[in-house]
Amino acid sequence: MTDKLTFVSVVFDAEVTLLELQARSMRMFLAPDAVDKIIVLDNCLLGLGSRRRARLLDAYGVHAPKVSFVPTRDLFDPGATSGWRSQQAAKLLISSRVRTPDYIALDAKNHFTRPVTSADFVGDDGRARGRSHPYDQHPLRSSLVHTIEYLGGDKAMVEGAVRAFPPTATPFVLRTSVVQELIRDIEESSGRPFAVEFEDRRLLEFFLYSGWATVRGPGLPALRNESPLTSPTVWPKAAHLQGVEDTIAEARDSGAFVFAVHRQALAHADRATLDRVARHWVGIGLFRDVKEVKRFLGRFKRSYTPALALTRSAERIQRLTRKIPFTSRRAHA
Questions:
Q1: pLDDT digit string (tens) for 39-86?
Q2: Whole-prediction pTM
Q3: Which of 11, 121, 258, 331 is the most exposed place for a label (fewest CB within 10 A)?
Q4: Beta carbons within 8 Å of 301's beta carbon, 6+ residues apart
């Protein structure tokens, strides 16, 4: 029987409403006996206030007693890293507060679409679900090569990773003990706090985890069983009616139990496209009717633009005052 899991979701100001949708989907579809804890990594500029926390806890429903809110600034020096990279570092550093053998990293845009148990994430053999894919033509190929070389991998390891390697998308299953050992190793070998090294070396959290397991750890076959774990996503470039139809079809054909709509897609899609998203959410039971979805989208849009503007301004100030390279959240998936 698979152990209970910890679910870790990271959020910043422009995505709080999306996290509420994720919480609603957990209440409806995530089996209570699959959950040990739900940790919300709060990367909001001023932190999640009491009203927003209360609204989220209401959305989590039966899971609310297991929810905790952890400001990312509690995990590392705020001057160590900034922008979307701080969210990535936090997904690994939170391992110090996880008590289950495995934890699931989620982005706020992910939401469940059908009943889910811990077995959907971790197989009976104790290994994580998640299928590798090639990176020879992938836009992140250079980042993957950089990570393997940074960790000391040889040419054969680099070539093997480019042929097939785990994705960088959520949901992603992380072995808690491996993440903790990875962080200790990086800090000891670099002589610097993990978040500082992570930022300075321009690392990506899931490449680092999978790369460390490959080069210095137990090897990926010991951690992953190469079974599907996908989250079809409506990306900004597909924020049109056909793009949404194609993504819904992908979810149906693959049997995926996680779906995602990127915040920019929701913010900029036309009415017909949003209506199709609304009908999809109603069809899987996340909302009672399209009117309820429209009220939800109205709240999202009213908060999105000012939240994004405030966040970008704060990051520019942080870059100037602390001399941290500015990385726009627009690059964050």
A1: 999 999 889 999 999 999 999 999 999 999 999 999 998 766 666 788
A2: 0.92
A3: 331
A4: 266, 267
Distance CA(126)–CA(123), nearest Å, equals 5
For helices 16-29 and 290-322, give the axis angle rounded to 10 degrees: 130
The residues facing 224 across adjacent strands are: 128
- Could you tell me if residue 140 is inside a domain? no
The answer for residues whose C-beta is within 8 angstroms of residue 199's C-beta and 6 or more apart is: 80, 81, 82, 85, 89, 324, 325
Q: Assess if residue 137 is contained within a domain.
A: no
CA distance 10 to 13: 11
The answer to whether 45 touches 310, Cβ cutoff 8 Å, is: yes
Print the domain residue range for 62.
5-123+168-219+306-331
DSSP assignment of 64-119 equals GGGEEEEEGGGTS-TTT--HHHHHHHHHHHGGGG--SSEEEEEETTEEE-S-B-GG
Q: Tokens for 15, please give them.
A: 């995505």
Q: How many domains does the chain have?
A: 1
| Residue in 75, 104, 101 with CA at minimum distance from that of residue 89 | 75
Interatomic CA distance for residues 226 and 173, integer angstroms: 12
